[in-house]
Amino acid sequence: MWFSLFGSSRDEDAERALERYIEKSQKPLGLISFTAIFTYKLDLAKYFSGTSVQEAIRRAAIKISSGDIDPLKSFLLDHGIETFLAVVTYLWWYQFNTAVKNEKKLIADTYTKMNIRKRVGSIIGYRLIPYIGVGATLTFLLLAFFIDNLPMYCVFMIMLNMIDIWGNNTVRTNMTEDFWKKKFAPPEGDPHRAYVVRRAEVLEEYWIKKPQLQRIGLMMICASSALIVSFSEQVAGVYVPVTLPYLIVITCILVNGHVMRSWRKVRDDALRVIDFEEDQEFGKRID
């Protein structure tokens, strides 16, 4: 009953169901956007008389080009570090959202060729998947809302990392059963067997063998550290500039993003080589 909210049954095609889950996880963005939150939280209308981020940027560019930089100086003095965090938060969301869509396709393509988990009900933990997606979107929006309240930002950053562990564990659980047991590999004699197994090994290397949980754990440690530092004066009587905990969080997010991009590049490059070699062997068109 509780799962019917997402309109799925155990026998539905897995890729179609996952695509719909991704679409529905974006629904909160139809009610409120990052642009609207940032415009409100950074008080852009006060400095640049803009009704949106784009309009404020346009007005700021006009003022700067005409030599009037006073509004920009005032804005950066008042909201510079929050603006930096806002940009980083949006980039984090964009990378996360793009990765979810791309990786859904990678897994679906590999599993289709292996002829396994074609129905959503065959995915271990499938009932939780749509809630993970919606939870991540809502948490990112809360992060955007609390760019000017770092302690709360850290709390929701930790929450998002917990959701990430939840989702990552769902993928790892399924892949561990599928790839380590090898019971779903194509039969001997299948001309595509070697390529399917190689793809499975690339995905296994990325999702299972890479220190994904340690990476997420380090992000939680950084968020917790920034939270503690932000209360250092109240707790230990030690004054710390307000920018320090912000910079801890920003650095953590940027380093995590760099690590993820580097891991994904290795994975995607390896998959492209496999696709190219398979197309060559079977005479498919190669551009």
How many structural domains?
Answer: 1
Question: Which class do the helix and strand fractions yield?
Answer: mainly alpha
Give the C-alpha Rg. Answer: 23 Å
| Oligomerization status of the protein chains | single chain
Helix percentage: over 70%
Strand content: under 5%
Unreliable stretches: 1-5
Residue-averaged pLDDT: 84
H-E string: HHHHHHHHHHHH
- The best one-word shape is elongated
For the termini, the CA-CA separation is 48 Å
Annotation field: number of helices: 12
How many strand elements?
Answer: 0
**Largest sheet data:** none
Overall description:
With 287 residues, the protein is mainly alpha-helical. The protein has one domain (79-281). It is 75% helix and 0% strand.
Key descriptive features of the protein:
mainly alpha; 287 residues; disordered N terminus; single chain
Summarize this, please?
The protein has 287 residues and is mainly alpha-helical. It has one domain (79-281). The protein has 12 helices and no strands.
Topology:
Layout (H helix, E strand, L loop, with lengths): L13 H12 L2 H4 L2 H8 L2 H5 L4 H13 L4 H45 L14 H17 L4 H31 L12 H17 L2 H19 L1 H5 L6 H39 L6
Helix pairs in contact: 1-6, 1-7, 6-7, 6-9, 6-12, 7-8, 8-9, 8-10, 9-12, 10-12
